[in-house]
Amino acid sequence: MVYFKATVKEIMRLYPPSPLLSPHRAIEDCTVGGYTVTKGTILYPNVWKLQRDPRVWSEPEKFLPERFLGHDERETDPGKYFGFIPFGIGRRSCPGTSYALKVTHLTIARLIQGFIITTPGNMPVDMLEGISITLIRETPLQVYISPRLPSSFYE
Hints:
Elements: H1 2-14, E1 24-25, E2 30-32, E3 35-37, E4 42-43, H2 47-50, H3 97-114, E5 115-118, E6 144-147
Antiparallel strand pairs: 1-4, 2-3, 5-6
């Protein structure tokens, strides 16, 4: 179960529910990354970029669930660490984070438990991303889903 949870976190790191957080307003003048941000400026934090920052994650483009193993849970708790914020951070984070993670874990676990999922010709899945307000794939996902148990079991 620990590795499964690490896998879900890694999926959320690479493919957050939304690439941008809700807008925030700067409460004072400041400098961020060499840019001057004046008080009142509306900012849209780029979760997609923050969670792929090589200063935070080694090999940020690689799918490595192991990066979430052996850490203090608080370090990788969504919304409490700036390197991993799939649901936002602080007071403005998603109020449904805990529920969303529980539903995600349950849904994925049940799919894996109940079905064999393959791709046409067992080809690797193309993970290139398209451009949208939410993260979409550049090419549609094509999979075959078949029950793990014989069909007579479902009658």
